[in-house]
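hi! just following up on the protien thing from before. the input was this:
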Amino acid sequence: MQTTIEHLEKIVRVYTRRLEALSEETYAWKPQPEKWSKKEILGHLIDSAQNNIRRCVVAQYEDTPTILYAQDQWVREAGYQSYDTPNLIQLWSLLNRHFVAVLSQMSPEAAQRKCSMGGQPQTLKWVAADYCNHLLHHLHQILDLDPIAYP
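and the predicted 3d structure came back as:
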C-alpha cells in the first residue's frame, strides 16, 4: 500500500500545479453539449475521490459493502460547470490529501478487506491503486497530455 500512497501523493503534488496553470476558458469549454468540459471532468474526479474514500472507510467495518457511483448524474447534479475553478482545484487537492491520510492509517489487514463497486469485489489495496490509474487517465484528458488507457 505504501507504493500507492506515495504515487497518490506525487500525483497531487505534480498535477495540482499543472491544473492551476490552465485558463478558465480552457476549463469551461465543452466539445459537445452532451460531453463533459474539463471543469466537469475535474468535478468527476472530486466525486470519484469522495466515493473511493467512502469505500476505503466503510469496507473496514462492513463486510464487502457495495458502493456504487452514478457518475453522469453526480456531475450533472453537482453543477460543476458553474463552479469557481480555483475552488474545484483546491477541493480536488484536499480530498486527495485526505485520501492519502485514510490510506496511511489503514492496517495491512484492512487493505485486504473487500468492497464491491457493482462487479467482482476487490481489495481496498486494489481500489486505491486503481483510483490512481483512473486519476491519471482523466488528468491527462484535462491537460491534453498523451492518453492513458483506463478500462
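The chain has a mean pLDDT of 96.
Helices lie at 2-20, 24-28, 38-58, 71-78, 85-105, 108-111, 124-142.
cheers
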